[in-house]
Design a protein that fits this description.
Blueprint lengths: L6 E6 L3 E7 L5 E8 L5 H16 L10 E5 L2 E3 L4 E5 L4 E4 L1 H9 L3 E5 H12 L8 E6 L3 E7 L2 E2 L33 H4 L4 H10 L18 H9 L3 H25 L3 E5 L1 H5 L1 H14 L9 E4 L6 H11 L4
Parallel strand pairs: 1-4, 4-8, 9-12, 12-13
Antiparallel strand pairs: 1-2, 2-3, 5-6, 6-7, 9-10, 10-11
Helix pairs in contact: 3-10, 5-7, 6-7, 7-9
Bound molecules: zinc ion.
C-alpha cells in the first residue's frame, strides 16, 4: 500500500461523527469532528457530506477516494443493511445503498469493532499481526477479530457479535438494546451499569452513589470505579459481577480464536481502571491453557482513533 493511497474514514459514534483523511501508512492527515445533530439515516448522510466538504478544503481529491463508514451495530455487510443499531435507533436500514447513491460505489459500510480490529492489526503496536482479537466495552460491548490476516465477517458480515451472545435467560434476562434478552451487553456495557448498580442498592447493599436525588444516567463507569476503589459495597459487588462475566466471555474468545494479541479497550475499560485490572486478572482462569501460551493482552494502541483508522483501511481494500 503506497503512501499515496489515501482514503477517507468516517466514524459514527453515539454522540459524534468524525471524518478523517488517512494516508497509506495509517497516518491521519486531517480529522474533523461534529456533534451529531440528528440520528435518522438521511440526516446522517448530510452530516457525512459536511465532513467530506471540510476534508476537501485541504485540497484533497475527496470525490475520487475510497471511503469506509464505521458504525456500532449489527450490519449485514453483504447487503449493506444495518440490521440493528441501538445507539441510533435503526432497524433494517439499507444504509449501504444510501451511501452508494449519495457518494458513489467507492464506499464500504463496516461494523465499528471490525474496523477497530482491522486498524489495530494494520497500524497498531502489533501491526502485521495476523491473529488479533479486540474486545471493547463502552456504550455497548463488542468485539472484532482478524484471523489469517483477514477480518472475520461470517456469511452476512454478522460474525463475532460478542455483546449479543447470551449469558442470561432469553425470556427473563435483561433486555438488550438489540431487542433481545440475556445478551452479555445488557450485563456489562456502560449504558447498563447504572441500573445494575441500582439493583445492588435495592438488594440491600450500601451505595454512596445512590440517593441524594442524583439522576441515574449521570453516573459514569469512572464514578462506579472510584466508589469500588473506596470499598463502596454496591460498587464492589457490581465490579465483581461484571469482571466475572467479561472474563468468562473473553476467556472463551481466547479459547475459540487462539489470538496472538488480545486488545482490550472501549470507554468503560479505559476509564474504570480497577474493573480493567480485575478483568485481566480473571481471564487466565477462563481461557483454555494451551491457547494462552502465545497470548499478549494489550490496551488499545490506537485509542479513540482505532475505529476511524480501521474504517479508512477497510476502504483501501475496495477495488479501485
Ligand atoms: Zn443484544
Amino acid at each position: 500500500m503506497g503512501e499515496d493511497a489515501q482514503s477517507i474514514g468516517i466514524d459514527i459514534g453515539g454522540t459524534h461523527l468524525r471524518a478523517a483523511l488517512m494516508d497509506g501508512q495509517g497516518k491521519l492527515l486531517q480529522v474533523e469532528r461534529y456533534r451529531l445533530t440528528a440520528r435518522d439515516p438521511a440526516a446522517m448522510l448530510e452530516q457525512i457530506a459536511v465532513g467530506r466538504r471540510a476534508l476537501a478544503k485541504s485540497g484533497a481529491p475527496i470525490d475520487g477516494l475510497p471511503m469506509g463508514v464505521g458504525l456500532a451495530g449489527q450490519i449485514n455487510t453483504q447487503q449493506g443493511v444495518v440490521a440493528v443499531a441501538p445507539n441510533l435507533g435503526w432497524h433494517d436500514v439499507p444504509f449501504g445503498s444510501m451511501l452508494h447513491e449519495r457518494f458513489g460505489q467507492q464506499v464500504r459500510l463496516v461494523n465499528d469493532l471490525n474496523a477497530i480490529a482491522v486498524g489495530e492489526a494494520a497500524y497498531g503496536t502489533y501491526r502485521g499481526c495476523r491473529e488479533l482479537c479486540c474486545v471493547f466495552v463502552g456504550t455497548g460491548t463488542g468485539m472484532g477479530a482478524v484471523t489469517g490476516g483477514a477480518v472475520v465477517e461470517g456469511a452476512d458480515g454478522l460474525a463475532t457479535e460478542l455483546g449479543h451472545t447470551k449469558v442470561g435467560s432469553v425470556t427473563t434476562g435483561r433486555l438488550c438494546g438489540c431487542g433481545e434478552r440475556g445478551c452479555l451487553e445488557a450485563y456489562t456495557s456502560g449504558r447498563h451499569l447504572p441500573p445494575l448498580l441500582q439493583a445492588k442498592a435495592a438488594a440491600g447493599l450500601a451505595c454512596a452513589l445512590m440517593g441524594g436525588g442524583r439522576p441515574l444516567e449521570s453516573i459514569t463507569s469512572a464514578d462506579i470505579d472510584a466508589a469500588a476503589q473506596a470499598k463502596d459495597p454496591a460498587a464492589v459487588a457490581l465490579w465483581a459481577d461484571v469482571s466475572e462475566m467479561l472474563a468468562q466471555a473473553v476467556g472463551n474468545v481466547v479459547t475459540l480464536f487462539n489470538p496472538a494479541v488480545l486488545v482490550l479497550g472501549g470507554g468503560v475499560l479505559q476509564t474504570a481502571k480497577s474493573l480493567n485490572a480485575q478483568l485481566i486478572a480473571r481471564i487466565p482462569a477462563y481461557a483454555a491453557r494451551p491457547a494462552q501460551r502465545k497470548l499478549t493482552i494489550s490496551d488499545s494502541c490506537l485509542g479513540d482513533d482505532a475505529g476511524i483508522v480501521g474504517a479508512a483501511r477497510v476502504a483501501l481494500s475496495l477495488p479501485r
